Amino acid sequence: MNPSETTARLERGLRGEAGALAVLDHTARVLLDAVPADVWCGVVLDPSTLLDTGGQHRSGFPESSMRRLFEIEHVEQDDVDNLRALTRRPGRTSLLSRSTHGRLGDSKYYREILHPLGLSDELRLLLRDGRRTWGLLVLCRDAHTRPFSAADLAVAEAAGVPACAALRRSLLLSGVDAGPLPDAPGWVVLGSDLTVRSMSPTAQHWIDRLQERHAPGRGAEGPYLLRALAVQASGEGTGAGAHVRAPAGDGRWISLRAWPVDQGGETTTVVSVGPTDPAELTALVLDVYGLSPRARQIAQYVLLGLSTSEIAGRLGVSGYTVQDHLKQIFDKVGVRSRRELVAELFLRHYLPRLAHPPLSTDGRLLSEEGPPA
Fold first, then answer.
1. Mean pLDDT, all residues of the chain
2. What single-letter DSSP state applies at residue 90?
3. How many CB atoms sit inside 10 A of residue 68's CB?
4. How confident is the model at residue 282 (pLDDT cuts 50, 70, 90)?
5. Residue 212's closest CA among 14, 340, 332, 57?
6. In Å, what is the CA distance from 340 to each residue of 33, 285, 292, 333, 350?
7. Residue 52 confidence (pLDDT)
């Protein structure tokens, strides 16, 4: 299958609305038909922190590798194809054997993760739109499979365009949730071995909505997201902690913050888990729509009710410039007027939060019958 055939097949399969996991699943199926792999996974990323926020791990790395993988990826960040290094390079694909110029042993990621598992090379595909990276597909081959080729990289590069567009679109899916909603974050405590020691009912409510899948027997110790966050928090300065926002399967967003805590000589990690604050959500949603920094700024002023002349005065530009930006905003969001823009953002992303007043407390989720006993 050549790059154009792969792109066409992906575009057909990714039309319409689909959740993030469905996008990763379909992209992987199409890509693996053209570029087979012995081990693979797909990950949804927070574009601000590049931490995992969910993903498809049914054919991914074993549990025993994950802690060290998170340390190399999110704490040490110094390997040749580290995710953060890749986002600073042009293009969407990388091949570890190429990045090391054939000296795979120079890579600690290869020495400590791939080689012990019998894997000989790794291809990474960033699902990026230029400035932001929303996801990652990882394909690995062992020594008994033919090496990745330039043609494989070309197919993967082409697949990244429709896959990224569909993944970003999936992060905008939302509907008005008429079910019970918790009012505040819950908490999770992880031990030094990254196992979940305790979890509040509200935290469980939000954790259950994370988009992450594992093969049977994997992921038993809790979502990779929690563990990646705990590993990053342990590598930050004292008290700094780590923060990530993850898309839930119903279109809402979940904020997680982690802090390492010394308890009697053991370092545990406390994680707060709850709905994303509207102040965070505004910038995040506008970013998902792919707006430029100036367009996001103008959209936020529109949400605040400012007129064209008022926006122009604040930004020191002409009214015509503001109108040009507004046309671009309308095109990207899929609306035709200021009123439709406000309705789109409010109804899809804020009303689900406001439909139920914050009356419950942790462990007491309101329902039509009232709080549970």
1. 83
2. S
3. 15
4. low
5. 57
6. 41, 16, 20, 10, 14
7. 87
Q: Count of alpha carbons within 13 Å of 65, Cβ hemisphere only? A: 17
Contact 362, 182 (CB under 8 A): yes
Structure tokens at 285: 């949603």
CA distance 179 to 259: 31
Contact 14, 23 (CB under 8 A): yes
DSSP 364: B
Name all domains of the chain by residue range, CATH numbers in brackets: 3-170 (3.30.450.40), 186-277 (3.30.450.20), 279-354 (1.10.10.10)
Q: What number of other Cβ atoms are within 10 A of residue 333's Cβ?
A: 20
Choose the weakest-confidence range: 166-170, 225-229, 312-316, 338-342. 338-342
**Closest residue by Cα to residue 306 from 344, 351, 276, 341:** 341
Residues with Cβ < 8 Å from 256, sequence gap 6 or more? 225, 226, 229, 243, 244, 245, 246, 271, 272, 273
pTM of the model: 0.71
